[in-house]
């Protein structure tokens, strides 16, 4: 198990007052272990052995399955920083998620996460807004003012139920409004081929806020751009002897100092590949070529097709 900052995968960064490796683990994939949770526990233990010390989760991942596997792996210990999210719940419907944005719903979800994680406190909780795509957009009684939500989140922080407060799926205006609440991280869709939120990333860098991109390898919906389909990225990955996925993650790490990665996988081999990204070094020329991918997409009129 890795013991010091220099050995943390990708280096180290402060997340809600805790120093963590810049390469963490996204727990959505743990829902695949519903029928064999011991295998999920073994995967998490292997991640810890490789130096991963923060896990990003939600009670709606597998309707509590992911959180249960985390509980079995680490219990209430502070061996890993646990980050969860609220703002949506699992439902039995064609679309398995529904927004749950009202303050009382956010509190209910925090308690649901505490129960399924077996903890008295969650290190960081992200408020998953629904201001922008991809995914669910708020309407009707789920159009809730940010101030009302942050008042509830701050109250739970004051009560010791949660540590830091993060934001997810937010616009620049919402992020600016939320800064006064002491936001510790932001999760928006962002990758080498989808950089609409560059201005938000700049705000995070200036304010010492962790930037934790989801869909870090491009669109998760059919027809949307993917790093693995970008010719320049494929060429550079081949030159470096790494996978396109590793290249996309390595570019993110090098792009800004406050980027934290949370790639998810149910494979120990892929887990090792993800952690190894911390050792990938891009040349100045390679970085410049990858930086230019987005500007070329904008020039070609393709930037609006990075999500529905």
Write a brief caption for the model.
The chain is α/β, with parallel strands linked by helices and 308 residues long. The chain has helices at 37-49, 65-74, 103-117, 146-158, 172-178, 198-207, 231-240, 244-255, 268-276, 284-299, and strands at 12-15, 18-21, 25-26, 54-56, 81-86, 88-90, 97-99, 122-128, 162-168, 183-187, 210-211. The protein starts with 11 loop residues before the first strand and ends in a 9-residue tail after the last helix.
Q: Can you walk through the features of this model?
A:
The chain has ten helices and eleven strands. By secondary structure, it is α/β, with parallel strands linked by helices. It has one domain: NADP-dependent oxidoreductase domain (TIM Barrel, Alpha-Beta Barrel).
Protein traits:
about 300 residues; alpha/beta; TIM Barrel; seven-stranded parallel beta sheet; two-stranded antiparallel sheet; about 35% helix; about 15% strand; globular; disordered N terminus
Compile the SSE list and pairings.
Layout: E1 12-15, E2 18-21, E3 25-26, H1 37-49, E4 54-56, H2 65-74, E5 81-86, E6 88-90, E7 97-99, H3 103-117, E8 122-128, H4 146-158, E9 162-168, H5 172-178, E10 183-187, H6 198-207, E11 210-211, H7 231-240, H8 244-255, H9 268-276, H10 284-299
Parallel strand pairs: 3-4, 4-5, 5-8, 8-9, 9-10, 10-11
Antiparallel strand pairs: 1-2, 6-7
Record field, number of beta strands: 11
Q: Write down the CATH class.
A: Alpha Beta
- Overall form: globular
The spatial strand order of the largest sheet comes to: 3-4-5-8-9-10-11
